[in-house]
Amino acid sequence: MFSIDTSTDFGARITKQLDNEQVLWLTTVGKSGTPAPNPVWFLWNGKEVLIFSQSGKAKVHNVVANPRVALNFNATHTGGDVGVLTGDAVVDESHSTAEELDTYNTKYAEGLAGLNMSTDQFHADYPVLIRITPDKLRGF
């Protein structure tokens, strides 16, 4: 089972980023074999990364065809604070738990308000849940 060693500076930083960052980059692999990075909103539930997507988007098709994905945070402008998670993704037809949904909605309340969008509108527009189970972490 994947875990982050929070006793190290690196592990503590990654845990903080998973809890506080608003955007990370999801990289899937397209039909041509080309990596396809996309900035996404996300939720870390302690064991998985959850991403909501619009139906029919390439990232959803890519995950179904090839579940191996990478997730990375923005680095500093000088290339520091690199953190990359790799793992397996699945489109979860059973959706999120009520607790996950509440936590996600709280995390992105300000972002949704900036888009003049309610949580109900967001989840109607972004109904597809992708769950990513990390198995490796690297960075510096």
TrEMBL record:
The keyword Oxidoreductase applies. It comes from the Bacteria. Residues 14-119 form the Pyridoxamine 5'-phosphate oxidase N-terminal domain. Keywords: Oxidoreductase. NCBIfam families: Rv3369. This is Pyridoxamine 5'-phosphate oxidase N-terminal domain-containing protein. It comes from Kribbella sancticallisti.
